[in-house]
Specification:
Layout: H1 2-35, H2 42-63, H3 67-75, H4 77-102, H5 106-127, H6 134-154, H7 159-175, H8 182-206, H9 217-241, H10 246-252, H11 255-267, H12 274-299
Helix pairs in contact: 1-9, 1-11, 2-4, 2-8, 2-9, 3-8, 4-7, 4-8, 5-6, 5-7, 5-11, 5-12, 6-12, 10-12
Length: 300
C-alpha cells in the first residue's frame, strides 16, 4: 500500500512538473509568436487577444464545470469590482509586453519578469504588512542596485521592465482577494475587455484600417491563435501548481524569463552592453539569494 501511495505521489509530481515546465516554456518562447504579428499595431493585437481568449475560455468553463461559478462571480458586486481592477492592470501588462517585443525591447521584458518575484516581496511588505527575512532584504537591495546601476550607465530608467514587473505584481496582489479560480477570473477579465475591444475593432474595420481579414489568412489565424497562447499556459500552470510545492514552482518560474533572455540575445541579437550584463548578474544573484531563502524557509 505504501509503495502504491509513493508511486501515485511520484506520478502526480511528474505530471505537475511537466505541466508547469510546459507553461513556462510557452510563456518564455511567446516572443516568437508576437513577433510574427509585428505588422499589426500592439493595441489591435491586444484587442484580438481579449476577444478570442474569451471565446476559447467559454467552452472550457462548461467542460470543467465552472460555468455556475462564472455566473455567480458576475453577480457579485465585490468580485466584479476586484476583477474590473485586475482587468485594467492585466490589459496594461499584456499591452506593454506585446509592444516591447515588437519594438525590440525583449531584454527589458526578460528583466521585468526576473524582477517580478522581488517586487512581489516589496508589495507584500507595503500592503500586506509581511515581514522580510534578512536574506530577502539583501536580495531586494541588490536588485535595486542593479536597476540603479543600469539607469546611471544609460541615463535612462528601464521603465519597460519596471512597468511590466510592477503591473504583474499589483495584478497578483489584487487577485489574491478575489475568491475565484484562475479560469473563472481570466474568463471574466477577458469578457470585461472583449466588449470595448469588439467595438474598437468594428470601428477600425468600418474605417478600412483594421488588419483582420484584410492582409493574409495566416495573420488572421495568428490573431485568433492568441487565445491559445493566453489560456493554454495558464491552464497548464494551474494544473501543475496544484501538484507541486511553492518552492518548486518558485524555481521553475525562472524558465520563462530565461528563455526570453536567450531569445533576445542569441536569436534576435538585441544589443547587450556590459552595463546590462552586470545588471542581469546582480538580478540573478538576488534571485539566487531569494530562492535559497525561500527553500530554506519552506523546509523548516
Amino acid at each position: 500500500m505504501q509503495k502504491r501511495i509513493s508511486t501515485d505521489a511520484l506520478r502526480g509530481t511528474l505530471v505537475g512538473i511537466t505541466c508547469a515546465v510546459t507553461a513556462f516554456l510557452i510563456w518564455g518562447l511567446s516572443p516568437i509568436y508576437w513577433k510574427a504579428l509585428k505588422t499589426v499595431p500592439a493595441f489591435e493585437i491586444l484587442m484580438h487577444r481579449m476577444i478570442w481568449s474569451f471565446v476559447f475560455l467559454v467552452p472550457l468553463l462548461v467542460i470543467q464545470g465552472q460555468w455556475k461559478d462564472f455566473v455567480g462571480a458576475l453577480k457579485s458586486k465585490r468580485i466584479l469590482g476586484i476583477l474590473t481592477a485586475t482587468t485594467l492592470i492585466v490589459g496594461i501588462n499584456w499591452f506593454l509586453f506585446i509592444w516591447a517585443i515588437n519594438s525590440d525591447h525583449i531584454l527589458q521584458t526578460s528583466l521585468g519578469y526576473y524582477i517580478n518575484p522581488l517586487i512581489n516581496v516589496v508589495l507584500g511588505l507595503v500592503f500586506l504588512k509581511e515581514r522580510l527575512r534578512p536574506l530577502q532584504t539583501a536580495a531586494v537591495i541588490l536588485a535595486g542596485m542593479g536597476v540603479t546601476y543600469l539607469t546611471i550607465q544609460f541615463g535612462e530608467l528601464p521603465w519597460v521592465a519596471l512597468a511590466i514587473a510592477f503591473s504583474f505584481g499589483f495584478y497578483a496582489l489584487i487577485r489574491k482577494v478575489a475568491p475565484v479560480s484562475s479560469l473563472v477570473g481570466l474568463s471574466i477579465e477577458t469578457l470585461l475587455l472583449s466588449l470595448p475591444a469588439l467595438a474598437y475593432l468594428i470601428y477600425l474595420d468600418l474605417n478600412g484600417v483594421g488588419s483582420f481579414l484584410r492582409i493574409t489568412w495566416r495573420l488572421d489565424l495568428l490573431m485568433i491563435g492568441a487565445a491559445f497562447v493566453t489560456a493554454l499556459p495558464l491552464l497548464l500552470f494551474t494544473k501543475g501548481a496544484r501538484r507541486l510545492n511553492l518552492a518548486t514552482v518558485g524555481l521553475l518560474q525562472y524558465i520563462a524569463p530565461s528563455c526570453t533572455f536567450m531569445l533576445a540575445v542569441f536569436y534576435y541579437h538585441e544589443p547587450f552592453a556590459p552595463a546590462q550584463l552586470w545588471t542581469f548578474i546582480m538580478i540573478w544573484t538576488a534571485l539566487g539569494m531569494y530562492s535559497f531563502d525561500s527553500i530554506r524557509h519552506y523546509l523548516k
